User: What shape does this take?
Amino acid sequence: MMIDYVTVDVFTDTRFGGNPLAVVPDARGIDEGLLQKIATEFNYSETTFVFPPDDPAHTARVRIFTPTTEIPFAGHPNVGTAFVLGRQGAVFGRPVGDRMVFEEKAGLVHLDLLRDGGAIVGAGFVAPQPLAMQGEIDRDMMAACISLAPDAIAMSTHGPRMVSVGLPFAVAELAGLDALASARPNATAFAQAEQRHRSPDDRFSAFIYVRTGDGFDHLRARMFAPLDNVPEDPATGSASAALAAYLVTLDPRRDAVRNITIEQGVEMGRRSLIEVEVRKTNDQVQSVRIAGRCVPVMQGRIDV
Assistant: This one.
């Protein structure tokens, strides 16, 4: 049995930048036990498998795997998978338009394609779950996870804490770009942190950032997930969405629309740009939209 696959770089317009993603556009017939093995073989931060939807009103059912486990939701897999299916033009014999709906373990994900002069250049989507703030994290513990002294973590606006819009992340602001560049994941500390902040959805991971402009409109970030066999991720849409939503809750205005650009992957040589729009009404985050560009890289077949 031969299975077609496509790889794309996500959150970039430059090949070999951004975050690589493997997409299997038709996963019908693949033995359940092979899904994780295929994702482990690619060894990207995520691989997606596309199945027919349970509800024919939707575009597809999408399953997302890291090298070690299946997860309910992630950012760059949604952007990249929509880009691939849009360029393909049809899914399971049905044409796809500029708007899609994916069925995922975290819920329904509503997506729209980005075009430039008629050509499909990327995609955007709305996070499937409302912002959940899942507790504060000890500063010393967070610092140990990223191999920095505790005073490298800024505390003036917020301390480290868990946030999620479908997948949980520990987020923290650092004191400056030097601290961000010096951060390194400590797998032992991550394992200890997971014992105190265990989640049924994914392993403990850290999303750290600094402000590179006035306020929170421009950020530079890094993401470490060594327990998922992802020492560092060059672009993390789900973490960007959760962080941006959380930061907007700190905006004193009861009603606001904030556009936040997050630059990631610079230290890895895979610069990524993630655009996030957060809408808040009556002091409540109503929606979080993540968008970015994509570039096709490879296509081939898997002999299963």
